Amino acid sequence: FTYARLGGTEGSVNALKKGSMSALKSLNQELHDHLGLESDLWVRPYQEGDDEEIVRLLQMAFEVWPKFDLRCSPLEHWRWKYRMNPSGKNVISVGVHQDRIVGVDHDLSL
Fold first, then answer.
1. What is the pTM of this model?
2. Which of 19-23, 27-31, 73-77 has the highest mean pLDDT?
3. DSSP H/E element including 96
4. What's the confidence (pLDDT) of residue 46?
5. How far is CA 92 from CA 21, 69, 70, 88, in A?
6. Is 6's pLDDT higher than 80?
7. CA distances from 29 to 25, 76, 86 (A)
8. Beta partners for 101?
């Protein structure tokens, strides 16, 4: 799930990763125009509290997530990997449809 894969412009994606809210609005408009959507599908930055729904989505999308035998829960693993990333450069975007997270993009730029 990234807008670039749906045909959006690389510039819009880069602006979104830099946290520009005007870029986010532009990205959503391009997404709706490109796909001809009349629905309630939006891309927005991660918000506190999204993590449980993101993990449920990952577990539905992949046969096994995470694919490691861990001594912690999948939720704890996700938080460690994406929220406590030592690089501090992680950008998480979610796709939302009818108030449910239906897509996620993790950018672990190192």
1. 0.66
2. 73-77
3. strand 90-97
4. 92
5. 14, 24, 23, 12
6. no
7. 6, 34, 33
8. 96
